[in-house]
Amino acid sequence: MDNLETLVIARRLRVPIGDAPVGSHPNWGEVAARQLDAALLSVGFKCSAALLERLARLRGETVVDLGVRVLAAVRELVGDHVQHNAYFLDFPRNVPDTVEFWVGLLREALLDPVAAERVQFHSPVLNLLELPRYGRYQHTYADLLAAHAELIPLAGDRVTVLELGGSLESEARALYFSLAGSEVPPAAEDLTALRTLAAFCADEPERIPVRENRAIVNEVRLAAGRPLLVDTVTDVLRLACGLSGGDVTLATPTRFRSFRRAERRALLQALDRVATPAKLGDVPRHREQWKRLGERLHPHEYPQFPAAARVFEVARGVRAAVSLDGRVEAALVAGRAGEAVKLLENAPGALLRRLDHLLRTGQSASVVLDAAERAAAGASGRVLLSLREHLQNRLSPAAGRVFTNRHGRAWATPDSRSPLEEQVLSRALAVLDEEITRRLPDPGELIVDPDVLDVALPLSGKAVVPGLGMLPRGSLSAVDGELLRFFVYWRQAERRTDYDLSALMLDASYGDPVHVSWTNYSNGFAEYSGDLTDATDGASEFIDIRLAEATQPIIIPQVNIYAGEPFDEAAEAFFGYMTRDAAQKGRPFEPRTVRMKSDLRGSGRIALPLVFLRGDDGGWRVKWLHLYLKGHLYFNQVEGNRVTASLLVRSIVERDYLRVRYVVDRLRAKGAPGGHTTYIGLEAPADLPEGARMYTPATLHELIPA
């Protein structure tokens, strides 16, 4: 239950209370509620008026118990659940010159015979990282607190409001329905949350469009003996992977467990129902996984399921099966583009995904567009929006094309595609706009927070780790404050792990690179807090930037794995940024100034979370990247990846992402006044009428039409 409560608080910023009994001593509950509100304010949160009023009417001990759990949840959300020490005690003051710092460490080592022997000065290669005082805290966290004044609260500090929730059951159900019914592929953390919620909630949404979500729900259905939600053979494979504790996205191989006889029968029965000749073509894509699953399901023991047996025959190569994609590719290679279009008309989503390619095959553009117009009504809303974003970027040449996988690993390549005629693009965009507008709900009275207009639509959530202040890739938001501070925290699980926080600064043409890192502590407007090379008990690094003095308009923070455990193997790893006014001193980490924080994960060795951009008006904005570079196994440094990072970031910055502004324009064009209210914004206002539809960053995926 505590896990569910934490999920609701962290994901929805709502405190589930429900029908908790009213206290017999109201004053005691009110005092406890005020104390909780004060404690929350110290980490940048506060209770809404409705929540504070409800807490004040509870028994004092109930408020105290609930407050402990709420405070723990929001402290972890903002990154304040750990102690953030800094290598340099006075950071950002008194950061030494890089050369002077290293010379001082060398001098100390030379004067210490024991240290000199360990460092091996007689060796032809000197490892500076072995110097005795390097890479480890030289003071305690208590020493750090004593050296820094308490933060003075200012009006610009972040205050995130926690709303009053209903019962835990109702709040968990609402979160479950939002995640399970999403049109957007989920992040790994969302799948974990969905599995927890599915085991708790008895019912489910009528429609579960995303296959990974369906696999999680099917696990619960199978355990309860209910019919499975499958309509392709791959749905059964995903379910088998989930039951084995494996990857339902099928991105990594799963080691299948031994299934009980009832499970084998249910899986084979479901497979037999959907294994039509047309769908057998999906089997070769995951041939090896099907072979391994066949060894566990023993299909030969179930002759009553002949269609299921044919699936494993295809996997072993005994039976031939060609997928739709295979037939389309064969037609295109043979120059029969018209045949390819006719094949794809049976799969509207596949046709629209290939529209750009089909328009460049030599087939008549009007024939292709006619087929696309017919297909639009049968494709998902996410496909329509994704194609809309793709085509609007074909109107002008791009610096390069960026490809990202589900783990956020990215690579860029020059755009070698031939251009599309403007008339063709205009017709395609008009078809998409009309169909998208038709699918959007009637807005009624539409209220929009202007700050949300430049937030990108969440067309995929796979690479976006949930956290505080997180927005989809391509989103833009303003940066308020005179001082910008990045931070990274990590704690190693088993072996020594060295992460390096760095910042790459570029000019407006993405050239003239300068950096701040463990090899260059400062550059006139930025300071580095010092390098830590061991995180047995956790380690934090910071970079401070005085925005008004910054000479480069593009600032790219990054986290490099120099040695040790990858992000997804470390016991804990997260990144974020803070903003402050010049008058605010305080500790290196002050939770109420944190604007964004999320975990680091992914298979890449270099994380590029976001980029900061100075506009023509002098103001700064942040654009979300959510990218990882492959990097090297060891010794990644900002100096070694600046060309790749620059090209990737430029491609993201110059891409025209489909934003909330587009949906708002479509809703206003629909203009259907009614008795309800629709609100779209970054935060939930307190004065919305009852029954209003509300979309905030946590629920923006619900804006994507079915």
Would you mind describing this structure in some detail?
- It is a single chain.
- The chain is of the alpha+beta class.
- Among the domains are: 2-83, no CATH class; 98-147, no CATH class; 324-439, no CATH class; 445-455 and 659-703, no CATH class; 467-654, Lipoxygenase-1, CATH 2.60.60.30.
- Helix content is 37%, strand content 16%.
- The protein has 23 helices and 20 strands.
- Strand 17 and strand 18 form a beta hairpin.
- Helix 9 packs parallel to helix 10 and helix 10 packs across helix 11 (233-243).
- The chain starts with a helix and ends in an 11-residue tail after the last strand.
Gross CATH architecture of the domain at 467-654: Sandwich
Task: Summarize model confidence as the mean pLDDT.
Answer: 90
Unreliable stretches, pLDDT < 50, 5 or more residues?
Answer: none
- CATH superfamily label of the domain at 467-654: sav2460 like domains
**N/C terminus separation:** 32 Å
Estimate the strand proportion. Answer: 15-25%
Task: Supply the number of helical segments.
Answer: 23
The total count of strands amounts to 20
Structural class: alpha+beta
